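Appendix B, example 12.
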Amino acid sequence: MNRIIRYTQPGGTSLFPLFAGRRPWTGLEAEADRLFEAALADMATPAFAARFPVDLYEDKDNTYVRAALPGVARDGITVEMVDGYLTIGASRKSGEETFNLSRSIAIPEAVQADKVSAAYEDGMLTVTLPKQEQVKPRKINITVN
């Protein structure tokens, strides 16, 4: 004969009160639903829609910022450097509506701000930020004594 054994603490309370009468995943499912609803609400806000992805990469002489801005005319793009931030703005018209996009990126202090340049070709904006001389890697020759 099989018996169900119920484990209890002294005083008769169950050791597993958390699951008494409900599935163990109920709280987790409710939390996941709440997080997905919050993420969808964030995506519907204008602030989310007004951002676009950027790529940052560097070589020994420059730091580069690339942004894909398809369908934006060259005269609808602005690039500014103010107080250590590079701000890229883009404005695109679609029928009667105008969409404004903007993105600010913190730039290291080791950039020659007066030599920053930007190029826009085939929907891709590339901003070149030249490094200052003292931060560029320098090869040091070793001499034999």
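The beta strands are 54-58, 62-68, 77-82, 85-94, 97-106, 117-121, 124-130. The radius of gyration is 28 Å.
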